[in-house]
Amino acid sequence: MKKITITDLITWKQQGQKFASLTAYDASFAQLFEQQDVPVLLVGDSLGMVLQGKSDTLSVSVDELAYHTRCVRAGSPNSLLMADMPFMSCATPEQACTNAAALIKAGANMVKVEGGSWLVDTVKMLTERAVPVCAHLGLTPQSVNIFGGFKVQGREEEKAEQMVADAVALEKAGAQIIVLECVPASLAKRITETVSVPVIGIGAGGDTDGQILVMHDMLGVSANYMPKFSKNYLAETGDARAAVAKYVQEVASGEFPGSAHTFK
Ligand code: KIV
Ligand code: NA
């Protein structure tokens, strides 16, 4: 795989070419993903759940994200690598700069921040200081205790309008990618058509520019739990490489996500 940059993603959006991405936490899987042409990888704070066995992402530290970012970068030199800014790492724009620097120095090409318009100053400050930013809207898991659980977001008209406004404000502030998690497909479609930056969805229907899944979900290894929007590709193929190849191909063809994996 050639080196992937934000320019490639913008071109794919403009051409309507859907792209797949996955979370990754270690060098071995990162290498496998790169060999199967997964252009975008995310070192997610989901590592608190899938690696550490916690019930949410809140206890994950910047140091842990940096460690796993170094691991993933070692296995995948060419992917566009995003790393999550964990809970409270963006409490102030100044703290966000310090913490983002640690992730960029660990090998990330971009940091991902959870939250809406309140992050405009932070996104601006990071971008001006040469840290590319992805903004994560919808079911932002760091807000699980505000939401009262892991619930689909943006079903009410007012909240949907707010999410569109947030996406526009964050793009204007400099965000170069938007991730939408667990939002109705119609809202994700509207946001994808409204902003000019690439939109990557998870549980957001088939109309976003890209898709992302947590690798443990798409390999069906998260013991007794499979989110509605995910799909067990290992069960279908019996081989990790074939599973990833099938996911990449089904995203490109538009077969995934189907209506069974989508919130209306
Ligand atoms: O941490 C994570 O894995 C994520 C993705 C679900 C987008 O933020
Ligand atoms: Na995350």
UniProtKB/TrEMBL annotation:
Positions of 3-methyl-2-oxobutanoate binding: D45, S46, D84, K112
Cofactor(s) this protein requires: Mg(2+)
EC numbers for this chain: 2.1.2.11
Cofactor note as given: Binds 1 Mg(2+) ion per subunit.
Assigned GO CC terms: cytoplasm
Localization in the cell: Cytoplasm
GO MF entry, a single one: 3-methyl-2-oxobutanoate hydroxymethyltransferase activity
InterPro entries reported for this sequence: Pantoate_hydroxy_MeTrfase (IPR003700), Pyrv/PenolPyrv_kinase-like_dom (IPR015813), Pyrv_kinase-like_dom_sf (IPR040442)
Pfam families in UniProt: Pantoate_transf
Alphabetically ordered keywords of this record: Cytoplasm, Magnesium, Metal-binding, Pantothenate biosynthesis, Transferase
Pathway assigned to this chain's UniProt record: Cofactor biosynthesis; (R)-pantothenate biosynthesis; (R)-pantoate from 3-methyl-2-oxobutanoate: step 1/2
Quaternary data: Homodecamer; pentamer of dimers.
Protein name stated in the entry: 3-methyl-2-oxobutanoate hydroxymethyltransferase
Source organism (scientific name): Salinivibrio kushneri
